Amino acid sequence: MTPGGYHTFFDEGSTLHAAQRLADGEQLYSDLLYFKGPLSYYGLALIFICFGPGLAQARLSGAALVSLVLVLSFCLAWRIRPREACQRGLSPIAYAGIVFLLAGALIIQRVSWHNSWCAAALSLAAILACLWAEKKRRPMAWILSGLLVGLAFLTKQSFGLCLFGGVVFHRILLGFLTKNPHEARFLIPWLKGVFLALAGWALFALIAGNLRDFLYLTIIYPLTAKGLVSGLAHSLPPVVFGRETLLFYGFPLLLLALAVHAGCRTTRGSRSHRILFAYSVLALCVYGALFPRSDMGHLRPLLPIALPALLYVADNAIARIPGWWRVLPVLALAGMFAVFLDAPLVLSLSKGVPLSMERGLGVKTDPETTAILNELVEEIQARTLPGEAIFVVPWAPLVYLLADRPNPTRVRIIWPGQWDSRDYQLETIRDLEKARVRTIIRVQGLKVIHQQDFAQYASLVHGYIGTNYTSVKAIGRFEILDRKQAG
Question: ∠ CA 420-422-427 to the nearest 5 degrees?
Fold first, then answer.
């Protein structure tokens, strides 16, 4: 089921388009421009190779990925569960199970394969590995932890960098608090694990021939003034102290800060307190990966990481309630989260209408969106031959997958600050001319993006389309353009 209709054309569509092209033998960065880490896209491409490309395959894989996030959140809650709470009658299974239910209520809306979900799963796994390493004090445990941090970086750089800084900061701070400088020695095997992950990808990219493009697009390009940073200056949401920002970003940060404070006071105590301290420092650092994008679309993958701190800090208050009645306020809290998020826990799949195109089989959405998508894909396939290229502008790359038509350019979107420079626009025009693209799909609902008109931030491509193509049909937000006849 796809609630909300058109949202699927944005981040999810971009991911699926990249995976489809990788499954067809192209390479990320050299054949398709991207500034994020590669692992999530190659992972979904492998699924497409095994089971065929399609929206349903991606959704089922996304459900498995979200389930993994829930399982990891359960394991994390189990690992840092307060021993005192277990002794007072709240069993370990109930304690971790409440975290599981809370996480499920928070993230059920976004069941799709997405870069952020992959990064969240790897971040949870990396934190768990750090806690295991803290308990076992063995080099192999630290190597595994470093390996997962490296993989997180190769999935979403901001997550990996925050985890990297968090682990280093934790070891140094722990050595200071315990007056034991030898705590930092565990960073050596941990760094070996990080190096192993990065070196493995570098070797693969070198063989595939896209190492140079990877280094430029994922490290240099995001930091250039005319690149991604310029675009983010326009696309960052304003800082609004509304219910979502305060409840789902500020509140978890406060809880994690309280957990760090509690850990600082007891780091010389039991091993369980040291594990709490390690968890809270790392989770707090990972939360910084999204600052200042404190919108729900980016916050959902990180919320399960903060939930164990919520119950840990609330433990003393909950313990004052006798017996199993203490579970009720926590369940009430889960209900509050669900209400705030409008989580579709009671959505009936029968309310949706299934898509009819081959690559959309098994997926339902609202009747209006289904009618538009079915008509759009039928129109594209009637106007073009199998394997004939089309171009979708400025951002609806899922159309390529649903219509089973290739994109002849290296750009999946043209967005303010993303592939809108003069050189990228001229390259896109050359690719369109070389492929002699006959049909262009323009999404009219996205003409103005973050107070910028497409004709303003992509004037060269806009002018080329206006000169060489004419509008022939509108289907919902989508406008079909045909190439003008010569002469």
Answer: 90
Exposed, middle or buried by CB within 10 Å (0-12, 13-18, 19+), for 388?
A: middle
**Other CB atoms within 10 A of residue 83 CB:** 11
C-alpha dist (Å) from residue 395 to 123, 130, 398, 417, 448: 29, 39, 9, 13, 12
Length, in residues, of the chain: 487
Q: How many CA atoms lie within 13 A of 155 on its CB side?
A: 26
pLDDT at residue 198 greater than cutoff 90: yes
Element (H, E) at 3: none
Q: Taking the CB of residue 188, how many other CB atoms lie within 10 A of it?
A: 12
**Tens digit of each residue's pLDDT (9 = 90 or more) over 259-317:** 777 666 655 555 666 777 788 888 888 887 765 555 666 777 777 787 777 666 665 55
Residues pairing with 365 in the sheet: 2, 353
Burial classification of residue 432, based on how many CB atoms lie within 10 Å of its CB (0-12 exposed, 13-18 middle, 19 or more buried): buried
Average pLDDT taken over every residue of the chain: 79
| Buried residues in 118-147 as b, exposed as e (16+ CB within 10 A) | bbbbbbbbbbbbbbbbbeeeebebbbbbbb
- Where do the H-state alpha helices sit in 267-413? 271-287, 296-299, 303-313, 315-319, 327-341, 367-383, 398-403
**Cα separation of 288 and 166, whole Å?**
10
Contact 56, 360 (CB under 8 A): yes
Using the CB atoms, write b or e for 401-424: b if 16+ within 10 Å.
bbbbbbbbbbbbbbbbbbbbbeeb
Q: Each residue of 334-382: pLDDT tens digit? A: 555 554 454 444 444 446 788 999 999 888 888 888 899 999 999 999 9
Calpha distance 399→402 (Å, rounded): 5
On whether the CB atoms of residues 23 and 206 are closer than 8 A, the answer is no
Q: At how many degrees (to 10) do helices 115-136 and 271-287 cross?
A: 160
Q: Alpha-carbon distance 78 to 86, whole Å?
A: 11
* Tens of pLDDT, residues 402-454: 999 999 999 998 877 777 789 999 999 999 999 999 999 998 765 545 556 78
